[in-house]
């Protein structure tokens, strides 16, 4: 519906107020709501693939590779898809990278306004960041103008570990292992097998090894992934995001696959 | 000549604002109690998103709401109902009665008639006259008071079972002893647990965990057979009591 009352009761496409019924500054900004439809995001353009996250003894670990694809083209190979928010939280994003950049902007603004305007001694933890993000995502899907992302939010505050998911529909859930995109099919079973029941005993190096292994399997099977990744570790000491790391891979087995290696017959 | 139709008529995939997140909910009213239950699996397609996402929520000391369908809508709807109940509490210094909550839920659902909450609601609790009650809703607000109702992925498996076991459909009473009007709490709990274990066997979207809320009318206590199951009592202002009983379901 047309939300500008000054446009009501006028013939369609009548953008010019011939009888000057209203002074210009009283008219709605959008004079052409009846003549042109607004375009909304209907598909993601530059995309990031899976994000993986697990709980371990001291906190949360989140991993993502650094590729931003343009369709099947590996367009940007060094994009950081893990974003720290405040002192206790990291958000990992798959899906549309421009929508993710917009969310980073929103979240940075949120943290600044909480620090400066509120100054009440309270700070946002991962649970609050996740609730805020899920409300933003749900509001945008309800306007049929979604932010095309699947996000993992992880962190530690007041000795409590937090790990949860939210996507373009506003669907949320929490578990000790989470994976978005292709990772939900390929990595999630590996993560569950390695982590479930061991959330309180896994050490940091063990958790890192589990994620690296899952990323490697994804690199072997997901055509939109790359062998370059970052891992965020959030513990009681705060959030730390690693530099860009290289995955160790071995392709020796490929020689034995017919159609890939040298043909012997 | 390349196929130009794709350029002239670009294929527009419309954004679908809904998803179906599986699971099943169920409520049965007794003479002076109500049981409201739901499994805790949340899924999309063949993927299990999480093994623990509650679908049953306590609203007041005598009202419990179960929501099933699109999880994002469900959580938002419960959040808004709870907010309206809090406002009512501030305005009237008491909890909203069950039948009023039922009508509130109808108006809130129908307000979204042209962009519905894709959610099936079952409201259970104790009426002001002390009887157990179940209200079931469709996504746009049609509702009725019933004795029992199942909704969600395994509705088609569970509801016929309840028709038989609760309403005694297709059962003939023994000579001179009519069917009871209401079953006692231990029998109802057994039927609820059997319903969910059976649904778990035959439906892939049901499983992982079972949460059963028991609402007891004013002045009633749990029968020994149920107290032995060690349900957790939730804090309440006195009068009606609310208990939670959790059970594991198969995770495969």
TrEMBL record, chain A:
<dbReference type="Pfam" id="PF00227">
    <property type="entry name" value="Proteasome"/>
</dbReference>
<comment type="similarity">
    <text>Belongs to the peptidase T1B family.</text>
</comment>
<dbReference type="InterPro" id="IPR029055">
    <property type="entry name" value="Ntn_hydrolases_N"/>
</dbReference>
<dbReference type="InterPro" id="IPR016050">
    <property type="entry name" value="Proteasome_bsu_CS"/>
</dbReference>
<dbReference type="GO" id="GO:0005737">
    <property type="term" value="C:cytoplasm"/>
</dbReference>
<dbReference type="InterPro" id="IPR001353">
    <property type="entry name" value="Proteasome_sua/b"/>
</dbReference>
<protein>
    <recommendedName>
        <fullName>Proteasome subunit beta</fullName>
    </recommendedName>
</protein>
<keyword id="KW-0963">Cytoplasm</keyword>
<dbReference type="GO" id="GO:0051603">
    <property type="term" value="P:proteolysis involved in protein catabolic process"/>
</dbReference>
<keyword id="KW-0647">Proteasome</keyword>
<dbReference type="GO" id="GO:0005634">
    <property type="term" value="C:nucleus"/>
</dbReference>
<keyword id="KW-0539">Nucleus</keyword>
<feature type="region of interest" description="Disordered">
    <location>
        <begin position="19"/>
        <end position="42"/>
    </location>
</feature>
<dbReference type="InterPro" id="IPR016295">
    <property type="entry name" value="Proteasome_beta4"/>
</dbReference>
<dbReference type="InterPro" id="IPR023333">
    <property type="entry name" value="Proteasome_suB-type"/>
</dbReference>
<dbReference type="GO" id="GO:0019774">
    <property type="term" value="C:proteasome core complex, beta-subunit complex"/>
</dbReference>
<comment type="function">
    <text>Non-catalytic component of the proteasome.</text>
</comment>
TrEMBL record, chain B:
<comment type="subunit">
    <text>Component of the proteasome complex.</text>
</comment>
<dbReference type="Pfam" id="PF00227">
    <property type="entry name" value="Proteasome"/>
</dbReference>
<dbReference type="GO" id="GO:0005634">
    <property type="term" value="C:nucleus"/>
</dbReference>
<keyword id="KW-0647">Proteasome</keyword>
<comment type="subunit">
    <text>The 26S proteasome consists of a 20S proteasome core and two 19S regulatory subunits. The 20S proteasome core is composed of 28 subunits that are arranged in four stacked rings, resulting in a barrel-shaped structure. The two end rings are each formed by seven alpha subunits, and the two central rings are each formed by seven beta subunits. The catalytic chamber with the active sites is on the inside of the barrel.</text>
</comment>
<dbReference type="InterPro" id="IPR029055">
    <property type="entry name" value="Ntn_hydrolases_N"/>
</dbReference>
<comment type="function">
    <text>Component of the proteasome, a multicatalytic proteinase complex which is characterized by its ability to cleave peptides with Arg, Phe, Tyr, Leu, and Glu adjacent to the leaving group at neutral or slightly basic pH. The proteasome has an ATP-dependent proteolytic activity.</text>
</comment>
<dbReference type="InterPro" id="IPR016050">
    <property type="entry name" value="Proteasome_bsu_CS"/>
</dbReference>
<dbReference type="GO" id="GO:0019774">
    <property type="term" value="C:proteasome core complex, beta-subunit complex"/>
</dbReference>
<protein>
    <recommendedName>
        <fullName>Proteasome subunit beta</fullName>
    </recommendedName>
</protein>
<dbReference type="GO" id="GO:0051603">
    <property type="term" value="P:proteolysis involved in protein catabolic process"/>
</dbReference>
<dbReference type="GO" id="GO:0005737">
    <property type="term" value="C:cytoplasm"/>
</dbReference>
<dbReference type="InterPro" id="IPR001353">
    <property type="entry name" value="Proteasome_sua/b"/>
</dbReference>
<keyword id="KW-0963">Cytoplasm</keyword>
<keyword id="KW-0539">Nucleus</keyword>
<comment type="similarity">
    <text>Belongs to the peptidase T1B family.</text>
</comment>
<dbReference type="InterPro" id="IPR023333">
    <property type="entry name" value="Proteasome_suB-type"/>
</dbReference>
């Amino acid at each position: 519906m047309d939300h500008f009352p000054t446009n009501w009761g006028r013939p369609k496409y009548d953008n010019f107020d011939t009888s000057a019924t209203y002074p210009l500054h009283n008219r709605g900004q959008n004079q052409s709501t009846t003549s042109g439809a607004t375009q909304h995001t209907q598909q993601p353009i530059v995309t990031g693939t899976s994000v993986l996250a697990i709980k371990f003894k001291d906190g949360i670990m989140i991993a993502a590779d650094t590729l931003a694809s343009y369709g099947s083209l590996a367009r940007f190979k060094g994009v950081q898809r893990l974003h720290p928010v405040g002192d206790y939280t990291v958000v990992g994003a798959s899906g549309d990278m421009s929508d993710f950049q917009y969310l980073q902007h929103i979240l940075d603004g949120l943290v600044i306004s909480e620090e400066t305007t509120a100054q009440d001694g309270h700070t946002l933890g991962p649970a609050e960041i996740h609730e805020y993000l899920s409300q933003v995502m749900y509001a945008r899907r309800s306007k049929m103008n979604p932010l095309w992302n699947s996000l993992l939010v992880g962190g530690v505050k007041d000795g409590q570990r937090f790990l949860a998911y939210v996507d373009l529909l506003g669907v949320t859930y929490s578990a000790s292992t989470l994976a978005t995109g292709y990772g939900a099919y390929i990595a999630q079973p590996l993560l569950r097998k390695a982590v479930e029941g061991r959330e309180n005993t896994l050490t940091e190096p063990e958790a890192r090894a589990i994620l690296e292994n899952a990323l490697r399997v994804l690199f072997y099977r997901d055509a939109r992934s790359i062998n370059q990744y970052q891992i965020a570790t959030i513990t009681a000491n705060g959030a730390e995001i690693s530099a860009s790391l290289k995955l160790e891979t071995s392709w020796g087995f490929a020689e034995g696959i017919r159609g890939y290696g040298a043909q012997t017959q | 000549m390349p196929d130009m139709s794709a350029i002239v008529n670009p294929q527009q995939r419309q954004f679908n604002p809904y998803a179906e997140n599986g699971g099943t909910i169920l409520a049965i009213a007794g003479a002076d109690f109500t049981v409201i239950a739901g499994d805790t699996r949340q899924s999309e397609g063949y993927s299990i998103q999480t093994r623990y996402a509650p679908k049953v929520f306590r609203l007041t000391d005598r009202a419990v709401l179960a929501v099933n369908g699109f999880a994002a809508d469900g959580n938002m709807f419960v959040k808004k109902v709870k907010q309206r109940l809090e406002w009512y509490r501030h305005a009237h210094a008491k909890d909203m009665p069950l039948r009023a909550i039922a009508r509130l839920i109808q108006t809130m659902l129908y307000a979204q008639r042209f962009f519905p909450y894709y959610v099936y609601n079952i409201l259970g609790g104790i009426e002001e006259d002390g009887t157990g009650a179940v209200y079931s809703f469709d996504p746009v607000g049609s509702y009725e008071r019933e004795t029992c109702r199942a909704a969600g992925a395994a509705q088609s498996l569970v509801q016929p079972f309840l028709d038989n076991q609760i309403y005694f459909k297709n059962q003939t009473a023994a000579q001179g002893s009519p069917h009871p009007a209401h079953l006692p709490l231990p029998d109802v709990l057994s039927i609820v647990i059997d319903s969910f274990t059976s649904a778990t066997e035959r439906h892939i979207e049901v499983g992982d965990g079972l949460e059963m809320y028991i609402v007891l009318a004013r002045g009633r206590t749990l029968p020994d057979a149920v107290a032995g199951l060690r349900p957790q009592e939730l804090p309440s202002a006195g009068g009606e009591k609310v208990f939670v009983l959790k059970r594991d379901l198969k995770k495969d």
